[in-house]
Amino acid sequence: MAVTKIEKLPNKKPRPIEGHKPAAAVLRGVVDMVYNNAWEAKKRGELVGWSSSKFPIELAKAFDLNVCYPENHAATTAAKKDGLRLCQAAEDMGYDNDICGYARISLAYAAGEPTDARRMPQPDFLLCCNNICNMMTKWYENIARIHNIPLIYIDIPFSNTVEVPEEKVDYLMGQFKYAIKQLEELTGKKFQEEKFNEACKIANRTAAAWLKSCNYMGKEPSPLSGFDLFNHMADIVAARCEVKAAEGFELLAEEFEQSVAENTSTWEYPEEHRILFEGIPCWPALKPLFEPLKNNGVNVTAVVYAPAFGFRYETVREMAAAYCKAPCSVCIETGVEWRETMAKENGISGALVNYNRSCKPWSGAMPEIERRWKEDLDIPVIHFDGDQADERNFSAEQYNTRVQGLVEIMNERKAEREAKGEDVYTNFENTKETDWSKPTM
Ligand code: SF4
């Protein structure tokens, strides 16, 4: 089936909110600020840490510590096309090329391999939580050995149940206490409860604004593409406890609201199809990922990766439970529910899955999740081989062919459904107002 190239719609470009810079520019500045603050702290002789993306950073904020985020740093390095070189440098050091690309980039950088992509100060201490994945543990242990520095570790085991059991929260509360003691010894300061409470307040404000922004993908037509959210991931990972990040996301949500009212969108093409894009994007290949979608009028209106970093809580116990929920640490039932709720809220007619060679835990769960989508949502699901950081594992040709296949099936089903007067997309009416990121305690 031939596919016609989709032309841009006239006058669809959104405008910034009156009297403000565009939110995207504001948010870019916030990430730069986090890294600059870390460099300034290092120059003043203060301690600077490296943290995994879902470590309960609120604890470190109670000590005014500056931290950088190796996952974010690795993603930026990969997006700026220096990831492969650093991956290979890590392999030359003896690390296997089957290890996650983020870890390889970070280990090479920690060992002194330079990069011009984005630089961050070398760490004086490490904060690691295995709620992201267990590979994290070995990654951070190796960095601790390279620099001979303390590693503060929170163990959040994989959740086999949908609910977070009370005893798991008890286990985490004990670890929070111990981490505070370790931070007190590290900094020579006492834990400052007001600063901790303030950090929690800002983290919740940032998360609320981020989730609100993500939810605009549920509008039809959508005022954004899921790819816009990928561009803001650095903020939600590295700046959750910064007021400026909260303000940036509030501005972003306002822009989307304005776009809805003015019928504009960052997705400047007709929305022929709406899909769920599953997994971490291939950062070095964002353009090759986006182009075939754009050329076929396929807008991404559901992504799991972005809202997974927006989580809210009211008490410290709820905070502990919220940190138990990350894409690779929840059971299949929760994983399916997150995605299917989003599919129903946002309206999709197909899904595209990145079998990300770097991220074994994520890709490993996908065959069963895909099977459930086909059964529960009756949508076509197509996957491709990719990698978030290692360019050797992505083929643009294979990807184009897979997108083409998905478009052909969606075209056929769309024509059939329209002829019968049926909904093309997963049913908006069946949608309940679920905040799937909220801890279920
Ligand atoms: S990409 Fe996957 S394997 Fe790599 S750190 Fe993240 S969760 Fe772990």
From TrEMBL:
Cofactor(s) in the UniProt record: [4Fe-4S] cluster
Alphabetical list of InterPro entries matching this protein: FldB/FldC_alpha/beta (IPR010327)
GO MF annotations, alphabetized: hydro-lyase activity; iron-sulfur cluster binding; metal ion binding
Keyword Iron: yes
Family label: Belongs to the FldB/FldC dehydratase alpha/beta subunit family.
Protein name, as recorded: 2-hydroxyacyl-CoA dehydratase
Keywords: Iron, Iron-sulfur, Metal-binding
Gene3D superfamilies hit by this protein: 3.40.50.11890, 3.40.50.11900
Lineage of source species: Bacteria, Bacillati, Bacillota, Clostridia, Peptostreptococcales
